[in-house]
């Protein structure tokens, strides 16, 4: 069976632009309450064993007096499942049917920690539709301020990598009615079947091979991972120009992807009858297996080689939000229980492909005392284990909070 692929049209872009500024609750919110179970599912989906998120007895002894959510917890509502919905409701045709959403950038601002058992609600709105030809083959995002990118909205792609549209969504999560976190999420809509894997940017990317020494290095990184915990960070503990303790992620497997979806659902989290009803109603989202003809959804590209090949990529790849969570994980390990991650901006430079591992690193740029508190700014980089090629880059700001009994 020959698979045909959707193409971005001017009509799709204009329909999407008409939704700019319209705010609404997210569909099928993952959690309505930040329960202990919800926090555990999210933390463990990201491989995070920090007891501040999951151990009530431990958390009760901290300055928070109980469990709080990992900073990036609000991303559970960024790509919520499309279905189910009332069967009689008709589609408005305002999306990009048949076109995968490739998450390319997160811009988080964290206001207040979400506490266990708080009711949560997320509101979303489109703030920009960028239709640009400024993307190199294989890249997911152009490193430019998104407002500048919006000025190029009327440009059209003309090269052989196909047309790309960057959707910019504003997500705001409220806990007990109070704003907890905001995020500008960029995701690129890309056309499939344009670049062949043997001709694309990653045509020479071989499967990684891990020696006994490599595996020992990875094992040592996991066994000896640094976590400050209840030892308060002091002003003098922060040295400008110094690297903070790195963390390891991967090697990425299909199990990692499955576990991630258990805590951070994506658009196509659906099975059996629900999946059948969705594909029957939205046939453009059906990408049947070329051998068995079994119906399936675009999300399979993350673990299915044939589907990944339609993007010009050699094999499955990570979801994208995992990179932001990895940086958050490293930063909260470093700052300990009392201090807070306040800002996190992450660019996805390229996918982390199946079986690749990556080091997650951060460097202190500067520390500042202001009337509102003590802050540290950092640059971030996640790089492949073998080639040290950038996978994610970013920046962060943390607030150092010193308990009365701690360092000053």
Number of helices: 10
CATH superfamily: Hotdog Thioesterase
Beta-strand percentage? 15-25%
Report the strand count: 10
**Oligomeric state of this protein:** single chain
CATH domain class name: Alpha Beta
Distance between the termini: 68 Å
Largest beta sheet: strand ordering: 1-3-4-5-2-7-10-9-8-6
Can you give the mean pLDDT?
87
CATH architecture label: Roll
Radius of gyration: 21 Å
The H-and-E topology, N to C, reads as HEHHHEEHEEHEHHHHEEEE
Largest beta-sheet details? 10 strands, antiparallel
Tally of structural domains: 1
Helical content stands at 10-25%
The global form is: globular
Q: Which structural category fits the helices and strands?
A: alpha+beta
Unreliable stretches, pLDDT < 50, 5 or more residues? 133-159
CATH topology: Thiol Ester Dehydrase, Chain A
